[in-house]
C-alpha cells in the first residue's frame, strides 16, 4: 500500500512539473521609437537613445516590436541592446527605408523562421505601396520563435500601418489577419504595431473580428496601468483614448497577465512621441 502511495505521489509531482513546464511567461513590448529627425529639438534621437534602450533592458523584454526605425537607429539599438538580436528589412528593401524590426532576447529565444511582406495587393513585391497609402511602402515582419528552455514555439508579427490612408489601414488589417491565419494556423500569436487607428475604428474592428484580442479590453482594469493614450506627439496635453493607436494583440493559447502603457516623460524630454506598451502573458501549450 505504501509503495502504491509513493508511486501515485511521484506521478502527481511529475504531472505538476509537466504542467508548469508547458507554460512560459513572456514580456512583449510594442514601441514606435520615432525616426531620427533633426527637427525634434530636445527630443532628437541622440538625447533619447540611451534612455530608450535602458528602459528595454530594465523591463527585461523578451520581444520588442519596434516601428519607424531607420538604419542608423537600428545599429544604435543593436549596440545598446547586446543581449538581443533582431530580424527585419527596410521597407524599401535590404537596409533602405524605415524598419519594423523585431528585437528578441537571443539568450532565451531562437528564430526558426522569419520573413517580411509588404502591405499591398502584391505583398511579396519589395517596396510595393498599397491602396490609398500616403507614404512609401509599409511592411509586416514576422517570425516563428522557439523558447530554448521549454521548446515551446509561438509567432510574432510586427507592423506599422499608414497614417493617412483609411482604406489602406482597413485593407492592411484584412491582409494581416489573412496572413496570420495562413502562417500561424493554431499556434499562439502576438501582434505589435503602430496601427494609426483608434480603438473604435474599422481597422481595429477588422482585427478583433478575426479573433485577435486586445488586452486593454480583455484584462481586468487593475491589470492595466498607464494613460488611455499611446501617441503623445511630444505634448501629452489634451490626449485621450482616441490617441491609443499603438497595440499589442494576441491570439490562441495566450493568457494575458498585465498591460502597462509607459508614460515616460522627463520635463520637456519624452522617450518617444509614442509611449511603449509592455504586455506580460503566459503561453500555454
TrEMBL record:
Residues 1-21 form the signal peptide. It comes from the Bacteria. Gene3D superfamilies: Endonuclease/exonuclease/phosphatase. GO terms for molecular function: 3'-5'-RNA exonuclease activity; endonuclease activity. SUPFAM superfamilies: DNase I-like. Residues 47-274 form the Endonuclease/exonuclease/phosphatase domain. Keywords: Endonuclease, Exonuclease, Hydrolase, Nuclease, Signal. PANTHER family: CARBON CATABOLITE REPRESSOR PROTEIN 4, ENDONUCLEASE_EXONUCLEASE_PHOSPHATASE DOMAIN-CONTAINING PROTEIN. This is Endonuclease/exonuclease/phosphatase family protein. The lineage of its organism: Bacteria, Pseudomonadati, Bacteroidota, Flavobacteriia, Flavobacteriales.
Amino acid at each position: 500500500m505504501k509503495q502504491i502511495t509513493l508511486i501515485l505521489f511521484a506521478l502527481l509531482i511529475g504531472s505538476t512539473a509537466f504542467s508548469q513546464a508547458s507554460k512560459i511567461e513572456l514580456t512583449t513590448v510594442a514601441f514606435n521609437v520615432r525616426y531620427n529627425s533633426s527637427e525634434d529639438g530636445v527630443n532628437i534621437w541622440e538625447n533619447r537613445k540611451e534612455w530608450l534602450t535602458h528602459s528595454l533592458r530594465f523591463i527585461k523584454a523578451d520581444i520588442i516590436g519596434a516601428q519607424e526605425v531607420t538604419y542608423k537607429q537600428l545599429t544604435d539599438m543593436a549596440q545598446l541592446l547586446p543581449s538581443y538580436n533582431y530580424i527585419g528589412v527596410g521597407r524599401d528593401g535590404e537596409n533602405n527605408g524605415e524598419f519594423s524590426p523585431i528585437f528578441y532576447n537571443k539568450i532565451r529565444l531562437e528564430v526558426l523562421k522569419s520573413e517580411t511582406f509588404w502591405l499591398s495587393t502584391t505583398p511579396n513585391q519589395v517596396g510595393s505601396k498599397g491602396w490609398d497609402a500616403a507614404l512609401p511602402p509599409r511592411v509586416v515582419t514576422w517570425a516563428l520563435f522557439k523558447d530554448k528552455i521549454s521548446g515551446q514555439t509561438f509567432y510574432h508579427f510586427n507592423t506599422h500601418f499608414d497614417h493617412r490612408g483609411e482604406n489602406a489601414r482597413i485593407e492592411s488589417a484584412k491582409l494581416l489577419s489573412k496572413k496570420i491565419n495562413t502562417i500561424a494556423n493554431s499556434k499562439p500569436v502576438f501582434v505589435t504595431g503602430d496601427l494609426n487607428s483608434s480603438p473604435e475604428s474599422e481597422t481595429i474592428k477588422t482585427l478583433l473580428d478575426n479573433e485577435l484580442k486586445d488586452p486593454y479590453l480583455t484584462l481586468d482594469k487593475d491589470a492595466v496601468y498607464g494613460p488611455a493614450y499611446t501617441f503623445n506627439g511630444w505634448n501629452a496635453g489634451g490626449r485621450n483614448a482616441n490617441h491609443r493607436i499603438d497595440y499589442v494583440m494576441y491570439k490562441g493559447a495566450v493568457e494575458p497577465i498585465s498591460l502597462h502603457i509607459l508614460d515616460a516623460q522627463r520635463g520637456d524630454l519624452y522617450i518617444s512621441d509614442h509611449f511603449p506598451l509592455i504586455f506580460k502573458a503566459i503561453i500555454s501549450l
